[in-house]
User: Fold this.
Amino acid sequence: VTTLRDDVRRAIVRPVISEKSFQLVQAKLATMLAETTAMQLFCFRLAQLQEAGVMSGPMASLAKLHNVRKAKLVCSEARDILGGNGLLLEYHVGRHLTDLEIVDTYEGTDTIQSLIVGREMTGISAFT
Ligand SMILES: Cc1cc2nc3c(=O)[nH]c(=O)nc-3n(C[C@H](O)[C@H](O)[C@H](O)COP(=O)(O)OP(=O)(O)OC[C@H]3O[C@@H](n4cnc5c(N)ncnc54)[C@H](O)[C@@H]3O)c2cc1C
Assistant:
């Protein structure tokens, strides 16, 4: 978490704050950090459960569903903050956004992860 915060501060926060100190940008940055920390905690907990030998498929589905959705949200906000530059390859954000669209599909689409979690919660399979 510390390393990530340092990286975010170096890469995004300082330039954005020095060039345009907007309240709404800072609010977006706070949301992005909160969501990123939540994603890390999902992974940390999943690793703990795996080490304890009790991690299940639906738990992994829940983590992937949550983290991919949030990663797309965070990346989309980052692209928005950079304005037109966010679409240029040299700023990398657009590339990350495209990569995340792929992650949304491979190793289980968002829909299928949802159906796996729903089946675990209700005991009823809504898909074949
Ligand atoms: C970059 C990349 C790398 C990949 N690497 C691998 C790999 O290494 N190994 C591998 O095996 N596969 C790999 N895949 C394939 C990937 O796992 C599949 O593309 C993914 O599982 C979706 O399957 P599909 O493309 O057949 O789409 P479909 O299953 O046809 O899905 C199309 C849409 O229908 C929805 N859908 C499907 N079934 C249902 C249902 N029962 N109820 C409701 N909605 C449903 C899906 O959520 C999706 O929105 C890769 C894909 C990509 C893009």
About this structure: The chain has a mean pLDDT of 90. The chain has five helices and no strands.
